[in-house]
Amino acid sequence: MSGGYISCGKFMGDDKSGSAISGVFTTLPECLPEEERESFILDVLDPLAEMLEETEDHFLIEADVAPRLLPPVEALYARYGEELGYPEPFDAPQLDDERGVDSIDAKWGEGIGWQYYCLHDLKIALQTSIETGAPVKIHFD
Questions:
Q1: Sequence-ordered list of residues with C-beta below 8 angstroms from that of 34, at least 6 positions apart, any chain
Q2: Hey, CA dihedral for 54, 72, 107, 105, is it positive or negative?
Q3: Which residues pair with 138 in a beta bridge?
Q4: What are phi and psi of 61, to 5 degrees?
Q5: DSSP letter string over 30-75?
């Protein structure tokens, strides 16, 4: 089964952890103050969506974007961790099944277990990007 993968420099996320990135990006603006949401969507999320549309199988989060993306990623990760009971990230997708979310829909962004799994690796990749200057790569196969 295909999926999305997250990497940055020497960091390679877990198997298919990037699959739920669309759900993560849809939810991230909720983690910002209302007055920051529109500019975050226009300046950060829309360009990433456009890049994915152009390439169809990958996009890069450049190192200069990582500091702006990391705080809402950390906030959403903490929110889902609390809601799910702080599971091991690799085990979190199973919680979507237990909650009755269709497994395919959950994997591609509708399940918070899958999003939690994605956020874990995205957080590490963004931190790596900030430290090294390397872009975060999300690719699908």
A1: none
A2: negative
A3: 6, 59
A4: -105, 105
A5: GGS-HHHHHHHIIIIIHHHHHHHHHHSSEEEE-TTTHHHHHHHHHH
Side by side, the strands of the sheet bearing 11-12 are: 11-12, 4-8, 136-140, 58-61
DSSP-assigned letter for residue 19: G
Asked if residue 1 lies in contact with residue 134, where contact means CB atoms within 8 angstroms, the answer is no
33 within 8 A of 40, measured Cβ to Cβ = no
Helix axes 112-132, 66-84, angle to 10 degrees: 150
- Torsion sign over Cα 75, 117, 80, 101: positive
Report the candidate in 92, 66, 85 with the shortest Cα–Cα distance to residue 6. Answer: 66
**Consecutive sets of 10 residues in the chain, 141 residues long: mean pLDDT of each?**
91 96 96 96 93 87 97 98 97 95 95 98 98 97 90
pLDDT given at position 51: 87
Nearest to 77 by CA among 34, 121, 107, 11: 121
Contact 110, 19 (CB under 8 A): no
Dihedral angle sign, alpha carbons of residues 26, 130, 125, 64: positive
